[in-house]
Amino acid sequence: MDMALPVVNATAAVLARVSAAFNAPFARAVVFGVHIDGHLVVEGLLIAVIVFQLTRKSYKPPKKPLTEKEIDELCDEWEPELLCPPIKDGARIDTPMLESAAGPHTIVDGKEVVNFASANYLGLIGNEKIIDSCVGSLEKYGVGSCGPRGFYGTIDVHLDCEAKIAKFLGTPDSILYSYGISTIFSVIPAFCKKGDIIVADEGVHWAVQNGLHLSRSTVVYFKHNDMASLASTLEKLTRGNKRAEKIRRYIVVESIYQNSGQIAPLDEIVRLKEKYRFRVILEESHSFGVLGKSGRGLAEHYGVPVEKIDIITAGMGNALATDGGFCTGSVRVVDHQRLSSSGYVFSASLPPYLASAAVSAVNYLEENPSVLANLRSNIALLHKGLSDTPGLEISSHVLSPIVFLKLKKSTGTCLYILSPTGLEGRFSFHCDIEEVKS
């Protein structure tokens, strides 16, 4: 208050002087017998200035064009804004370079290493039968298809692969996609539209999140792998809501979550789906060829009839060691995608040799079910070897081929290594068919 008082006094003094100036005799004038005070004169001048500025013509550059020399000088002086901030030397990452197949043992930068970062769960990279099928397909069809499926891009081997996958899973039909990760975020917008309701696990990975965003549906998340939270969410959305009964409703989950290594309890999800009359979209990229007695995925693992799952998607770049993806379900579900799924309609079809590799990989899995026992043995061995690691604990499911480690006592930051999952703050190892040596 003491410091503010002089300022207040000074301001009052200035106002008093201005008032006195306007009330002084010389600030008054008589125009045609009318007395005009000083403040009216000032206000009139201000109005005149404003009118003058408004009526002025806008500035026009000189009509004389710039010379080439002036244009060159301006271009030399112009510096475009950077698209991204400069990367400091300490922040640069030197990407490891593979010099051999990405098998369990590979060569990185000239050194042989054990590969824990690959999703080669069944060890099919380098399988001779699969390589032979690819060579035969290359000789017959060439490298690529050079066209979408609906425009001279459908080759007989594509139809063979779709039929093989449908028969293996026990579904009526299936459809191939050219890129594994694009499968799920093309399928979701193909069925889910603006105004629909999607109840999704909050732990789904980026591709599923992207599909949810592209659908423009109303998305409600439930707690990760928490069935009580799912039941509560479904109850809140449907209880007394007559509008919800007339719109499409979906539950979106992953079988083995890429961001946590947890397995979704499909039996409980199906029970809740039937109770509240929702449809289920199941993403099986990390469970196809891994879970179940014969590798048929989460439905076989829980003994749930596959027809109770409305839509199943999976990428083929993991257990099958090829590329692309597929969606399987009823004939109507598949046919709808052939006309309305962007990843299928607008992308060049899957290179035929990759479709041949997928067929050979499924055949190999059917003929050699023992590879699943070997995979589970390796997962158990890796769990045993990592269980006594000081300060760390395993957070993933005992059947997950993606093994996550987390700090027992987190300090807010930790190191992230050997993981293609993109989940910060955790370690991740992939277990494959070759023997894991301590």
TrEMBL record:
Pathway: Sphingolipid metabolism; Lipid metabolism; sphingolipid metabolism. Serine palmitoyltransferase (SPT). The heterodimer formed with LCB2 constitutes the catalytic core. One of its GO terms (molecular function) is pyridoxal phosphate binding. Belongs to the class-II pyridoxal-phosphate-dependent aminotransferase family. Keywords: Acyltransferase, Endoplasmic reticulum, Lipid metabolism, Pyridoxal phosphate, Sphingolipid metabolism, Transferase. The lineage of its organism: Eukaryota, Viridiplantae, Streptophyta, Embryophyta, Tracheophyta. It is found in: Endoplasmic reticulum membrane. Its cofactor is pyridoxal 5'-phosphate. Residues 112-393 form the Aminotransferase class I/classII large domain. Heterodimer with LCB2. Component of the serine palmitoyltransferase (SPT) complex, composed of LCB1 and LCB2. This is serine C-palmitoyltransferase. It comes from the Eukaryota.
